[in-house]
Design a protein that fits this description.
- By secondary structure, the chain is α/β, with parallel strands linked by helices.
- It has a single domain, classed as Glutaredoxin.
- The chain is built from 9 helices and 9 strands.
- It has helices at residues 8-22, 25-40, 69-73, 89-107, 120-130, 143-147, 156-164, 169-173, 209-220, and strands at residues 58-60, 66-68, 78-82, 111-116, 136-138, 151-153, 179-181, 184-188, 194-199.
- The strands form 3 sheets. The protein has a 5-stranded mixed β-sheet. Strands 1-2 form a two-stranded antiparallel ribbon. A two-stranded antiparallel sheet has the order 6-7.
- Strand 1 (58-60) and strand 2 (66-68) form a beta hairpin.
- Helix 1 packs antiparallel against helix 4 (89-107).
- The radius of gyration is 17 Å and the shape is globular.
- It starts with 7 loop residues before the first helix and ends with a helix.
């Protein structure tokens, strides 16, 4: 396995380790409780699975340009990564990893889009700050994420915690529901069929790009 492709979870684990040294245990416990409760709902077992037909989407990117899944799939396979927002260091580390692999994705004839509930303005900040070459799509009210089985509501006690660290989701997302997608990555073939699907209730765990790119390679070899 290419070493570059095996490092995402290592990077995320470093963020977790650093957080545990800096944040008091009683505050860490709030996030741990939220993760455990979300996992207990069985959300990971209800995501759109491999073999399913993915829903079509028509969503604006950070510049307001409309991106249509049918147009993208007419040109090649499509990787879709759902992320929480630019306020999440785990999400940004993941998107930067995909940024570094984007040339390889395009050379395989595939495309990548990243989808979140954050506003177009927030996505524009994200693209510029992190030099992202792929579209960041605004999924208003997480409606597309819901069709992939990824959406949950942040519990009240965790809302209070996020506000205390200046993460105001109603402002960042432009709506007041306090819903988020479980971070997830999908690979669709040109027929819109799901060929790779992985999501985790624990936002600190993400699919390895190596696994997604391997699944992509099996499509492009056909």
């Amino acid at each position: 396995m290419n070493q570059q492709l095996s490092q995402l979870q290592d990077q995320l684990d470093t963020i977790t380790a650093n957080t545990r040294t800096l944040v008091p245990a009683e505050r860490l416990a709030i996030g741990e409780r939220a993760i455990a409760e979300l996992f207990a709902t069985g959300i990971e077992d209800r995501i759109l699975p491999v073999g399913a037909s993915a829903p079509d989407f028509v969503l604006p990117d950070a510049s307001g340009r409309i991106q249509r899944s049918r147009d993208l799939l007419a040109l090649g396979p499509l990787i879709i990564t759902f992320f929480r927002g630019r306020w999440c260091p785990y999400c940004m580390t993941e998107l930067e990893t995909w940024r570094n692999l984007y040339g390889q994705i395009r050379s395989s004839g595939a495309f990548l889009v990243a989808v979140s509930p954050q506003t177009q303005r927030q996505s524009d900040f994200t693209s510029q700050q992190h030099g992202l070459p792929f579209p960041l799509l605004h999924d208003a009210d997480s409606l597309l994420a819901a069709r992939f089985g990824l959406v949950y509501t942040v519990p009240g006690y965790h809302q209070s915690y996020l506000r205390s660290i200046l993460v105001n989701l109603p402002f960042l997302n432009g709506e007041s529901s306090w819903t988020l997608p479980v971070p997830a990555t999908y690979l669709l073939d040109m027929h819109g069929t799901v060929r790779f699907a992985e999501a985790h209730a624990d936002f600190r765990v993400r699919p390895e790009p190596a696994d997604v790119l391997y699944a992509l390679s099996t499509l492009t070899r056909r």
